Amino acid sequence: MLLRTDLAHAHPPTPVIVAASEQRPKFPKDEAGFLSELRRRTDDYFAKTGKSERDCWQMYLKTAVILAWLASSYALLVFAAPTVWLAAPLSISLALAISAVGFSVQHDGSHHAYSRYDWVNRLAALSLDLIGASSYLWRWKHVVFHHTYPNVAGQDADIDVGVVARLAPQQRRRWAHRWQHVYLWFLYALTASVWHLFGDFKDVIAGSIRNHKIPRPKGWELVTFIVGKFVSISLLLGIPMLVHSWWVVLIFYVAVTAVLGVVLTVVFQLAHCVEEAEFPQPTAGGRMEDAWAIHQVQTTVDFSRKNRVLCWLLGGLNFQVVHHLFPNVCHVHYPALSRVVDETCHEFGVRYSAHRSFLAGVASHFRWLRRLGRPEPEIA
To answer: 194: domain range?
Structure first.
C-alpha cells in the first residue's frame, strides 16, 4: 500500500539554532492548501470527539503499565533469577520494557505531546536519562535536526553514521558498504551500549552531533546529563555487580543492550531508510523543492498500521507519517488521525506510503541497504 502526503498539524518544526556560518535549507510555502485543509479536518476530529490532543488518560495508564513492567523485569532479573533459563527471558523482557519507555514515554515528552504542561513533558522526557541516553542530546539530534530535515543528507543526523554505512544515495560509497546489508544487523546490536557508554559523552565534549554544532549543556542541563549517566550506569552495571559476578553482569548487559539496540534501530530505520522513502536535496540556492509538510510525507513510511499490539508497544511509531506531521499530538491518536490523513490524501491525489506488515518494512530496509552498497546502485 503506497500513498504520499503533505501535512503538518498545529505546530511547525522546531526552529533550528545553529552557528552563523552554518546555512540551513529553506522550505517553500504550501501553496496548494493541502496543509490548511488537513489542519481543519484534524481540528474538526478533536472538536467532534471531544478528545484532547494531550493529557490523555490512556497515556497516563500506559505509562504506569510500562514503568511497572520495567521495574518488575529489572527486579526479577537482578535479584530473583537463579538460573540462565529464567534470566534469558527476563533479559528480553527488560530490553523490551526499556524500549517501550523510549518509544512511548520519553518520545511523547520530548515532542511536548504528552501534556499541555511543560513540567510534565519535561519529566516524561527525562525518562530517557533513566534508561541510559541523554534527553538533552536527543532533543537536538531527533527533535530539531531529524524532524526538520528528514532524509536530507548533511542535515539529518539520523542518516549520517559516518563510514559505517551508506544510508542515503548522496553519501559516499566505500568498498565495505558492499556488505552493509549483512553486517549492519550485527552492528545494530551495539547501538544502545555505544550510545550509553561512549556516544553521548563524545557529543557533549565535542559540542557537536556529526557536522552540527550544538551548545554544550550548562547549569541544570549539565547536572541532568551527569546524574542521568550516573543513575543509568549504576542501575545497569553497578547495582547488579553488588549481587552477581562482574562477568555475569557484563554478559547480561550485552544481551539486554543488544536486544534493545536492534529493536530501537530497526523501528526507526523502517520509517526512513527504505525503498519507498525519498532523499531530496536542496538546490544550489539552498531551497528545498517541496513545502515542509510534503517533504515529511515523501521521506517517511508507515508499516503494519492494523496491528494494535505493535502500535501499543512502539508508541504509535508504526504511524511515522502521522507522527512527523503531528509531532505535538499524543501518539494514542495516531490510528484515528491516519484515517483522516489517508482520506485527505486520496482527495488531493497525494500518496501516503505504508508497508502492510513489519516484515515487509524489514525486507524493504534490507533491499535498500543492499542497493546502496552496490558499486553503481540504481536509485529511483
So the answer is: 2-18+31-373
Please state at what angle helix 246-272 crosses helix 180-188, rounded to 10 degrees.
Answer: 130
Q: pLDDT tens digits, residue range 237-290?
A: 999 999 999 999 999 999 999 999 999 999 999 999 999 999 999 988 889 988
> 268: closest CA among 211, 191, 203?
191
Tell me, yes or no, whether 360 lies in a domain. Answer: yes
Cα 205 to Cα 228: distance, rounded to the nearest angstrom: 16
Residue 6 pLDDT = 35
Contact present, 322 and 337 (Cβ < 8 Å):
yes
**3-state SS, residue 143:** helix
- State pTM to two decimals: 0.89
306 within a domain of the structure (yes/no): yes
pLDDT digits (tens, 9 = 90+) for 297-351: 989 999 999 999 999 999 999 999 999 999 999 999 999 999 998 888 888 777 8
- The alpha-helical segments, DSSP class H, found in 234-374 are 239-243, 246-272, 292-298, 308-313, 320-325, 334-348, 358-373
What is the count of structural domains for the chain?
A: 1
Residue type, 3: L
Cβ-Cβ contacts under 8 Å for 178 (sequence gap 6 or more): 373, 374, 375
Q: Within a domain: residue 149?
A: yes
Q: What whole-number distance in Å separates Cα of residue 177 and Cα of residue 156?
A: 20
Residue 316 phi/psi, 5-degree rounding, is 75, 10
